[in-house]
Specification:
This protein has 3 helices and no strands. The chain is mainly α. It has one domain. It starts with 12 loop residues before the first helix and ends with a helix.
């Protein structure tokens, strides 16, 4: 009879979930803003709707993707870097 204990849940799932929730949300808002800035030729109503509906899949993708990281620190680092990149591009487009 095998008496081995089942593998425990990773200790940093809370950190990963928090990173995906907080930084995933800001990433989705930044991507929507970037889309809005790049799609200037579209009518405002269509562009606004597409930017609004873009937030949910990006946020859910980030929230589900954080569990592929080895630990919570890497999830925070990669999502933080992605946020810096997106908001940096957005700032560059607005200033330029």
């Amino acid at each position: 009879m095998n008496t081995a204990k089942p593998k425990a849940i990773a200790h940093d799932w809370f950190s990963k979930t928090l990173a995906g929730t907080l930084l995933g949300f800001t990433l989705s808002i930044g991507c929507a803003g970037l889309f809005n800035a790049l799609a200037g030729d579209m009518p405002l109503g269509v562009r606004g709707q597409l930017a609004m509906w873009l937030t949910a899949p990006v946020w859910k993708g980030a929230l589900s993707g954080v569990y592929f990281f080895r630990d919570g620190k890497r999830a925070w680092a990669w999502l933080g870097g992605a946020n810096l990149l997106v908001f940096g591009l957005l700032a560059a487009l607005r200033l330029g």
